[in-house]
Design goal:
This protein is of the alpha+beta class and 331 residues long. 41% of the residues lie in helices and 25% in strands.
């Protein structure tokens, strides 16, 4: 294990030196450790310039994998990283000025949902709001969004002090902006699986007429409607961009409207930071098995940095509240 760590460090240092050769006059190239979600450490390259408050951090893991697989040389890798750096610099020209002015960012402040206990180190210098028992809403400035993804900057205490905003004001802004900037999206799990199947087939050159897909979907829905299994009642709640969409269950009125639609209280399964699963409660009273299912999925099918929680929550429509009903205290 130690030998592999040394090899990785040597490879990163070789990449750093090659990139620095290309960055002549642009600044000093450094390897930087950064905490991702759930306090997971990753390594990246950053070009430090005295006249720039913001420098793009380029994560090295994908490039290290390409080198290890023989898909790229050191020189090719350095050139790719340098191109990414230049592209980011162009985008960052107006960002620094924007982040300095409260009036320019206040309509772009949003929240995202993370695990409370797994992010203790990162949360030390960040404003956040505890949600339920083991979740935390953190705050970001949404800089860009399109069909390829979203670009955000995390809000720390320094930003908050500079903008002269209180944490309560930050929450109010985020609670207003997030549903507008990242609109809610919900569909049944069965419909989602069919859509993924369709996309997979099309990528492999299999194309069917839309009416054929519609017929298959309708037949599947009829089969699921006649099924009493819990799988037939699952709904995936996220946002339009399918990124950090678990926070959509915090949107004002979303859970209440969903519960009224089904005429039942809801079971909330934190599938990942990108989505949650809602289940109409029916007569379900034992939640331990559901918690074990969520934990098993988190342990084997979700990337460590995308795990949200092993807990199960229940939303009560009558008093518009939710609480944890299963899950260990370790998150």
């Amino acid at each position: 294990m130690e030998e592999k760590i040394r090899e990785k460090e040597q490879r990163m240092e070789t990449i750093r030196k090659e990139v620095e050769k290309l960055c002549t006059g642009d600044g000093k190239v450094k390897i930087q450790e950064t905490l991702k979600n759930n306090d997971i450490m990753q390594y990246g390259l950053v070009v430090i310039k005295d006249d720039k408050a913001i420098s793009p951090l380029i994560y090295l893991e994908p490039y290290l994998n390409m080198l290890e697989n023989g898909d790229s040389t050191i020189e090719e890798t350095a050139e790719s990283i340098y191109c990414v750096y230049l592209n980011h610099c162009e985008k960052n020209l107006g960002i620094e000025n924007e982040l300095l002015h409260r009036e320019l960012v206040k309509n772009k402040i949003i929240y995202q949902l993370v695990n409370l206990k797994k992010n203790q180190e990162a949360l030390k210098n960040m404003p956040y709001r505890v949600i339920g028992e083991d979740l935390a809403a953190i705050f970001m400035v949404l800089l860009e969004k399109d069909d390829t993804g979203i670009m955000t900057v995390k809000i720390n205490q320094d930003f908050l002090k500079h903008w002269e905003l209180s944490e309560e004001e930050l929450w109010t802004l985020a609670n207003k902006n997030t549903p507008i900037l990242l609109p809610v999206d919900m569909e049944s799990l069965s419909d989602l699986l069919i859509a993924l199947f369709k996309t997979s087939m099309e990528k492999n050159g299999v194309t069917l007429k839309q009416e054929t897909w519609d017929k298959l979907l309708e037949e599947h829905r009829e089969q699921m409607n006649g099924t009493k299994g819990i799988e037939s009642q699952m709904y995936v709640l996220t946002n339009k961009y399918k990124l950090w969409g678990a926070a959509a269950f915090l949107y004002p009125g979303v859970l209440k409207a969903t519960a009224k639609r089904f005429g039942k209280d809801l079971i909330i399964l934190p599938s990942s930071v990108h989505e949650i699963i809602l289940i109409p409660q029916d007569d379900l009273e034992e939640f331990g098995d559901l918690s074990e299912i969520v934990k098993n999925i988190n342990d084997h099918d979700v990337l460590p940095e995308e795990v949200l929680s092993d807990s199960v929550y229940r939303y009560c429509c009558e008093d518009d509240t939710f609480c944890r009903v299963a899950g260990n205290n370790e998150g």
